[in-house]
Design brief:
Strand content: under 5%
CATH topology of one domain: Serine Threonine Protein Phosphatase 5, Tetratricopeptide repeat
Helix content: over 70%
Structural class: mainly alpha
Largest sheet: none
Radius of gyration: 52 Å
CATH architecture of one domain: Alpha Horseshoe
Number of helices: 24
Shape: elongated
Distance between the termini: 89 Å
Length: about 550
């Protein structure tokens, strides 16, 4: 909404000052002399001078920065100075810089417990967010600043807050609520006898009538405002009001009058370097000429609008780049100063540093030697451990080989004895009457049978001598195996044949094969995997 620009001018009034053309301009030459000897009594005057409408934007910023430099020792004055430069940035649509400086001012006000200044800064922050279209943030700041302004009986500020609430209602298309808020603000300002400040909500009511397509009522309010604003150097406000009159006449299709008002607005905005108003007016002129069918002029002003808008965006980008460059420059300066300070300290303590370096070097060498010794010792210890493990594995392998041989011998003996026993039993079956010699043979058979059992016991002892690590590993990895399964696996590891296993376990060769198949399933081995190779992995 164009009438937002009118709100910016009221900042100067809100901090207790009005514009006096002649006195301000006559003091321009000695501004910096005054700033150099700044006192609290002169602060408001210098702020007023830095915001004068006839100054260019760069001149305003230069003066505002000079005030900041000279208020570093006074927190209250510094807070006002930051608020001042934030206002100037906001007036010229540099919202990022405006918020940064207003936040600095707000932090100081909070620390100083200055509720009046705090309410003012929150109001300004809300107004900046309102201009940026951040309605939610704007509403929050207005909500916070309202009660403080009312408590401190700052009725002018409270009226401006009510006015801004009306703008927020209007943006939300709640036109009846916005109309009520604007009229409430007018009543407060009427009671204070503030004619200029009253132009702000009056202008907003004019905007309200524009939105509801009642241009005649809008023109009435805008003409009233223009009459009041022309009494002072309120160039930006005059430019906005003239632009609004142009919009109202364009609604009535009075295109010549609309163009006349737009051109008057354009001259004032260019004179005061209010570029946002300027490019908005270019756009309004382009649209009006398009409606009249003068497309060449429409194209001309549209081009100017686009060029100026792009230049403003580029300027903002360049400002950000300059800011980063300045920050980088300051950082380099700080680093340089720190390096110089360190150099001085180094020169003063050169001997002590040299001594400390020697001590440090000696300690480092000792530590390095100790560390190397420790590393060497650990490597030697590790090498010894590896050697012991290797020898233990060799011993276990030899033991396993020996035990395997013993098992094979005993198995062979068992096989021979069992074969003999089978032969003897066959012969006994052929005899009808048993003689004494035959009884003797039977006695020997029994003795041999006992020896078979003894041999089986020896075989079990040899199997038990197999590395305990094998039994532990296979039980940990396959807890589902029974003791019988583990002993059967041990026989396979000792490379016993199916026949030898059958003799030692007193089972047939086919039963041994079946048991091997079942063991393989319990170990979850595929048909292509070798059972013996898998079990050898646990040795």
């Amino acid at each position: 909404m164009k009438n937002l620009f009118a709100l910016l001018t009221v900042f100067i009034v809100l901090i207790g000052c009005g514009h006096k053309n002649d006195s301000v301009l006559s003091e321009n030459d000695n501004f910096y002399d005054r700033a150099d000897s700044l006192s609290k009594t002169k602060l408001d005057s210098l702020i007023r001078m830095s915001q004068h409408p006839k100054l260019s934007f760069d001149e305003k910023i230069e003066r505002a920065k000079h005030i900041i430099i000279n208020t570093q020792n006074d927190a209250v004055s510094l807070a006002k100075a930051y608020g001042n430069i934030g206002t100037i940035y906001s007036q010229h649509n540099q919202y990022k810089e405006a918020i940064i400086n207003l936040e600095k001012s707000n932090v100081l006000d909070k620390n100083l417990a200055e509720p009046k200044l705090q309410a003012m800064n929150m109001y300004k922050m809300g107004l900046v967010h309102l201009k940026m279209g951040n309605n939610k943030q704007a509403r929050q700041f207005m909500k916070l600043s309202g009660p403080i302004a009312l408590k401190n009986k700052n009725h002018l500020l409270f009226a401006m807050i009510i006015n801004n609430r009306g703008i927020l209602y209007s943006k939300a298309n709640e036109f009846d609520s916005s109309f009520i808020a604007f009229n409430k603000a007018i009543l407060i300002l009427d009671s204070l006898g503030l004619e200029f400040e009253k132009t702000i909500p009056l202008g907003n009511i004019g905007d309200y009538y524009l939105k509801i397509q009642e241009p005649d009522s809008a023109i009435k309010y805008f003409n009233h405002n223009l009459k009041v604003l022309r009494k002072g150097p309120y160039y930006s406000d005059q430019a906005v009001t003239l632009g609004n009159l142009g919009l109202a006449h364009r609604q009535k299709e009075h295109y010549k009058k609309a163009i006349n008002y737009f051109k008057q607005s354009l001259r004032l905005s260019q004179k005061s370097q209010f570029f946002k108003i300027t490019y908005d007016t270019y756009n309004d002129l382009a649209e009006t000429y398009r409606l009249t069918g003068e497309y060449e002029l429409a194209y001309f002003y549209k081009s100017k609008y686009l060029v100026l808008k792009d230049s403003i965006l580029n300027k903002e980008t360049n400002a950000e780049i300059l800011e980063l460059q300045q920050i980088n420059k300051n950082e380099k300066k700080k680093k340089k100063e720190l390096l110089q300070k360190n150099e001085v300290l180094k020169l003063k303590s050169a001997e002590r540093d040299h001594f400390n370096q020697n001590i440090l070097l000696s300690v480092s060498i000792i530590l390095l030697i100790s560390l190397l010794g420790l590393v060497f010792f650990k490597l030697k210890l590790k090498q010894t451990q590896f050697e012991l493990i290797r020898k233990e594995q060799e011993f276990l392998q030899l033991k396993l080989t020996a035990e395997s041989e013993n098992v094979k011998i005993i198995s062979h003996e068992l096989f021979v004895k069992q074969d003999f026993s089978s032969s003897l039993i066959d012969k006994l079956d052929q005899l009808e009457n048993i003689s004494k010699p035959e009884l003797k043979h039977i006695e020997l058979f029994i003795q041999n049978e006992l020896n078979v059992k003894s041999d089986r016991a020896d075989l079990q002892i040899h199997m038990d001598n197999l590395s305990g690590e094998f039994y532990n590993k296979i039980k940990i990895n396959h807890s589902n195996l029974t003791d019988s399964d583990v002993k059967f696996a041990a026989m396979i590891v000792m490379k016993m044949s199916n026949k030898e296993i059958g003799i030692s376990k007193n089972m047939s060769t086919e039963t041994v094969k079946t048991t091997k198949y079942r063991l393989k399933k319990k170990l979850k081995l595929s048909s292509s995997e070798d059972l013996g190779d898998y079990l050898n992995g646990f040795l």
